[in-house]
Specification:
The protein is built from 8 helices and 2 strands. The chain has a two-stranded antiparallel sheet with strand order 1-2. Helix 2 packs antiparallel against helix 3. The longest helix has about 30 residues. The N and C termini lie far apart (about 85 Å). It comes from Ovis aries (Sheep).
């Protein structure tokens, strides 16, 4: 007896058809593409620009770079400022990517990030663009203090060792070290952020009181090292991102100095 083809897999002519669910799976992630690009254009450029300017301003006249603690403070300042500037794009990104999971009558149907920003201001007020700004800035402070300071410190250490010169290999190794440090520092913060966002109401009370309560309960009931559960895949994502960020930043800085400051 011949097997009957599934209607969802092929049409009457026997040719394979793509189901609506497959299309949604393939292209659903593109819904927030414009918002994701705007977030990178605002958050990333702001934090890296501020860090570079402050780092150069605080470098000694003899070329001595700032100490590690000062680098961390510069990173925290750059991260907090970048997060504040990038929050509107992040609000739009979260809403646009979540829109497809909402019931049809509750979807906002933003066309692009600029349409989202305009409608948010028009329908909910301009301050809504900075909803969730404080926890976003808090996370950025930790991540950038670790990422930017550890990169500068690792690069300085590699150059001082005498085995490296200021080239792409040095930038690659320093950024991989930075990615490792950033992963270790940011995972507990991400766990706090995720648990608070997804917490349930138990007997009419929130599951967690605050971020510290999350950390205490996770360590007590799941163990200390559960704060770094999933370390390898997290680093596999963050490592290449950090490498590309700093390699492009270094090359762009060199090109800028060569084209505009050499004369």
């Amino acid at each position: 007896m011949a097997a009957t083809a599934s209607p969802g897999a092929s049409g009457m002519d026997g040719k394979p058809r793509t189901s609506p669910k497959s299309v949604k799976f393939l292209f659903g992630g593109l819904a927030g593409l414009s918002a994701g690009l705007l977030r990178q254009a605002t958050y990333t450029t702001t934090r890296l620009g501020i860090y570079t300017v402050l780092f150069e301003r605080l470098t000694g006249t003899d070329g001595t770079p700032p100490g590690f603690l000062l680098k961390a403070v510069i990173g925290m300042t750059a991260g907090a400022t970048g997060a504040f500037v990038g929050t509107p794009a992040e609000v739009a990104l979260i809403r646009m990517t979540a829109d497809g999971r909402l019931p049809v009558d509750q979807r906002r149907g933003y066309k692009n990030v600029f349409n989202a920003l305009f409608r948010i201001v028009q329908e909910e007020g301009v301050l809504t663009l900075w909803r969730g700004c404080i926890p976003t800035m808090a996370r950025a402070v930790v991540v950038n203090a670790a990422q930017l300071a550890s990169y500068s410190q690792s690069k300085q250490f590699l150059l001082d060792s005498g085995y490296f010169s200021d080239n792409i290999l040095c930038h690659f190794c320093a950024s991989m070290i930075s990615g490792l440090v950033t992963t270790a520092a940011s995972m507990p913060v991400d766990i706090v952020k995720t648990r608070i966002q997804n917490m349930r109401m138990i007997d009419g009370k929130p599951e967690y009181k605050n971020g510290l309560d999350v950390l205490v309960k996770v360590v007590r009931y799941e163990g200390f090292f559960s704060l770094w559960k999933g370390f390898t895949p997290y680093y596999a994502r963050l490592g290449p991102h950090t490498v590309l960020t700093f390699i492009f930043l270094e090359q762009m800085n060199k090109a800028y100095k060569r084209l505009f400051l050499s004369g």
